[in-house]
């Protein structure tokens, strides 16, 4: 599987900026709220030890540029600290969200050289760490897959040699994850090649120290797709462990969304966004972390708010997110365009058709964002009965899809943006068919959209802005197929537990059958307790 930059291709520019940031910015600050992680190093300088612990925590929290700065700060205080230089190399390497950039190869190799030069000052365990991390790098960075495999094997040996070293086991698990990022399970939930070993390693760490932030973070990623309940306890602990590290504060929401804990997902991302805003302002952070990880908090917050029926919060968050993504950034980083339609998506989700039609063009040269503008306008015109105008928007949307421009908008895989625009076209056709009273065509288009949505790879939040089964169930019920509608709503509730949209649909099915359910109504009221709209299925 191709390495899945969640924000892909163009973010290599941000990675480059992050490497340059770590090279050029002054000594890192010691951050408050960095958490309990400790890795004892052989230094007489307590401040070097503090920087090292901070650096490793930040690496486990995927703030790699700040981690590099902190490892370098430790080495500046104690220039004989070989493992500090090895830490620099470690943080410059690949991870599950980003490949190693060309610009990181030379400084990583230089750092390894400095680490090797200081081995005489190190303990046996530190020397073993230096050698293991050295296996990950070469002067040219050629054959990255072989280097990653060599590093994973070296970390396996190290973790076995030091069975009480929980950081070693966690790094071993991460090395295995880096061999097949975001591909830990088969489609049927069976494990891929390295999954059993990495899960065993992480469960050992958490069984010994439930407060290990690195293990908790990685375990959430390993479990979230198929067995999120297993990681719920880790998620509940992680959120408060490292309050300064926004990504770690955010991570529990990956589990909460999967378990139907939408309010908790909102809260986690509100806190994560606040933590990252404070950090970015304090450190003048640049590069990948503020360009991608901070907006991810807002994106997740927005999605969770919509699942709760919280229109005003979703609108406000969409506005915040849009302000963080200037058009010139989206033009340079194609995948960032996925964030730009969030305002339009919010208008669609809540049936705000006048606002959808009034939404301006974001900027020229942004094909994905423009396609989604046509999508929202097409649905709005259809809802208003202006079918000729809706058809014109559909044709404009399909023209973008056929132009080849979407190939530059890589969302994990090169084909996903095309699939998403295809879903948008299905939904506009369905909206037009609904207005014409053509139930067969409406349901056909919605079934195609659901099938396309289900074909997308796993992602949190999901690639499409709402579960289309909710629309399909509504259409089936309206056209008299209550049994099929019930099945569709039940399937949506299995994937998105306790969401009020499908609970409302299910309650309508039961009421129409003359079997109203107090239990379902109570679940709906609980799901909608924070909503600022009336219960709806959104179609």
Structure explained in plain terms:
The protein is mainly alpha-helical and 539 residues long. 65% of the residues lie in helices and 0% in strands. The chain contains 27 helices and no strands. The model is unreliable at 1-18 and 20-24 (pLDDT under 50).
Summarize this structure briefly.
The protein has about 550 residues and is mainly α. The protein is about 65% helix and about 0% strand. It starts with 10 loop residues before the first helix and ends in a 12-residue tail after the last helix.
Instruction: Spell out the helices and strands N to C.
Output: HHHHHHHHHHHHHHHHHHHHHHHHHHH
Task: Count structural domains.
Answer: 3
Beta-strand portion reads under 5%
Arithmetic mean pLDDT: 94
Instruction: Identify the overall geometry.
Output: elongated
The multimeric state of the shown protein is single chain
What tags apply to this protein structure?
elongated, mainly alpha, 65% helix, 539 residues, disordered N terminus
């Amino acid at each position: 599987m191709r390495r899945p930059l969640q924000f892909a291709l163009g973010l290599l520019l941000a990675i480059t900026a992050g490497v340059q940031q770590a090279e050029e910015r002054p000594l890192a600050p010691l951050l408050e709220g960095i958490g309990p992680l400790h890795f004892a190093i052989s230094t007489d300088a307590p401040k070097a030890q503090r920087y090292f612990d901070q650096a490793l925590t930040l690496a486990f929290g995927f703030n790699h540029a700040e981690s590099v700065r902190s490892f370098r700060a430790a080495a500046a205080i104690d220039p004989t600290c070989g493992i500090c230089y090895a830490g620099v190399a470690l943080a410059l390497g690949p991870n599950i969200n980003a490949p190693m950039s060309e610009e990181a190869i030379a400084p990583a190799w230089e750092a390894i050289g400095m680490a090797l030069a200081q081995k005489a000052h190190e303990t046996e365990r530190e020397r073993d760490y230096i050698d293991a991390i050295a296996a990950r790098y070469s002067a040219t960075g050629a054959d990255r897959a072989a280097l990653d495999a060599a590093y994973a094997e070296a970390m396996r040996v190290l973790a076995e040699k030091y069975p009480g070293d929980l950081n070693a086991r966690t790094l071993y698990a991460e090395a295995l994850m880096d061999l097949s990022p975001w591909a830990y399970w088969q489609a049927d939930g069976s494990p891929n090649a390295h999954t059993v070993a990495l899960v065993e390693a992480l469960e050992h760490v958490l069984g010994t120290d439930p407060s290990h932030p690195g293990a908790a973070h990685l375990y959430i990623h390993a479990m979230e797709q198929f067995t999120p309940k297993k990681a719920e306890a880790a998620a509940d602990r992680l959120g408060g462990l490292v309050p300064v590290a926004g990504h770690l504060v955010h991570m529990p929401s990956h589990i909460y969304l999967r378990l139907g804990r939408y309010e908790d997902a909102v809260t986690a991302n509100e806190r994560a966004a606040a933590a990252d805003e404070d950090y970015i302002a304090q450190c003048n952070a640049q590069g990948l972390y503020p360009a991608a990880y901070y907006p991810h908090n807002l994106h997740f917050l927005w999605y969770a708010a919509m699942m709760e029926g919280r229109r005003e919060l979703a609108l406000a968050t969409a506005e915040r997110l849009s302000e963080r993504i200037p058009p010139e950034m989206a033009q340079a980083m194609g995948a960032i365009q996925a964030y730009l339609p969030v305002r339009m998506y919010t208008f669609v989700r809540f049936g705000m058709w006048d606002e959808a039609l009034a939404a301006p063009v974001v900027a020229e040269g942004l094909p994905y964002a423009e396609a989604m503008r046509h999508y929202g306008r097409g649905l709005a015109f259809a809802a208003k009965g202006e079918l000729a105008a809706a058809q014109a928007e559909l044709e404009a949307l399909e023209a973008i899809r056929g132009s080849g421009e979407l190939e530059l908008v890589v969302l994990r895989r090169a084909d996903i943006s095309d699939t998403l625009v295809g879903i948008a076209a299905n939904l506009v056709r369905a909206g037009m068919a609904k207005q014409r009273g053509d139930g067969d065509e409406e349901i056909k288009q919605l079934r195609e959209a659901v099938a396309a949505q289900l074909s997308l790879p796993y992602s949190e939040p999901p690639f499409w802005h709402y579960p289309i089964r909710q629309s399909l169930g509504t259409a089936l019920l309206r056209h008299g197929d209550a049994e099929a509608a019930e099945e569709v709503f039940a399937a949506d509730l299995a994937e998105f537990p306790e969401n009020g949209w499908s609970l409302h649909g299910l309650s309508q099915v039961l009421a129409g059958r003359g079997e109203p359910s107090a239990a379902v109504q109570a679940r709906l009221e609980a799901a909608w307790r924070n909503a600022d709209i009336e219960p709806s299925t959104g179609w």
